[in-house]
Design brief:
mainly alpha
Length: 207
């Protein structure tokens, strides 16, 4: 059975409307900088695994900002009036971007999973991307970077040195990899943000 050309072009049209190449290039640049920064920190005298906290916190924050901004649609009318539903494509795009980002950023901080290594990086990518996705649905893609940036910056400055306790919930980005409460918050944020984005799509913007 042959596929109608218009139907075959729909996924490509959807990806082009989201400026996927620019988002992918931005994520690649963030991953490269994160890898170089983590390597440089690890080569410093008296290296401590907590020295990688800035990379584990800031790289997912920047990546989620790129993903959220990339959810902007240049064809809001197409999304709302198309005969075929767009939500599966929204979900697939978000899952693909999250998986690729988590994978490449986790590779930037190899080893020491019990500290601030790959597990903490993956967790922070999930949580930050979930917040960005929810922000895109509620505020619009162009402002989706703002809530997580403000919250992440405040947590980075205010989080206590000792992990665990109540800080594992409100300062989940600053927790070591195996911290269960931090994972629960991050996964919940991702699931809620993804669901909100998939159902509503990014908030329409003008100008």
């Amino acid at each position: 059975m042959s596929t109608h050309p218009a139907h075959a072009a729909l996924p490509l049209l959807y990806l082009r409307s989201r400026a996927l190449p620019l988002t992918a290039a931005t994520l690649a640049g963030i991953a490269l900088v994160a890898a170089l920064a983590a390597d440089w920190l690890q080569d410093q005298p008296y290296f401590d695994h907590t020295a990688r906290v800035p990379v584990v916190v800031l790289a997912p924050l920047l990546a989620s900002s790129a993903i959220g901004t990339g959810l902007h649609s240049h064809s809001d009318e197409l999304d709302r009036t198309a005969v075929r539903r767009w939500w599966p494509r929204r979900l697939l795009l978000l899952l693909a971007l999250t998986a690729v980002t988590a994978g490449v950023l986790a590779a930037a901080v190899p080893g020491h999973p019990e500290e601030f290594g790959a597990p903490a990086m993956v967790r922070n990518v999930l949580g930050a991307t979930g917040v960005a996705a929810a922000s895109a649905a509620l505020l619009g893609a162009r402002l989706s970077w703002l809530p997580m940036t403000v919250y992440g910056g405040a947590v980075y400055l205010a989080a206590p040195r000792d992990p665990g306790g109540a800080a594992a919930v409100w300062a989940w980005q600053m927790q070591p990899g195996p911290q269960g409460a931090a994972w629960a918050v991050a996964v919940t944020a991702y699931a809620a943000g993804a669901a909100l984005l998939v159902v509503r799509g990014a908030r329409p913007e003008r100008g």
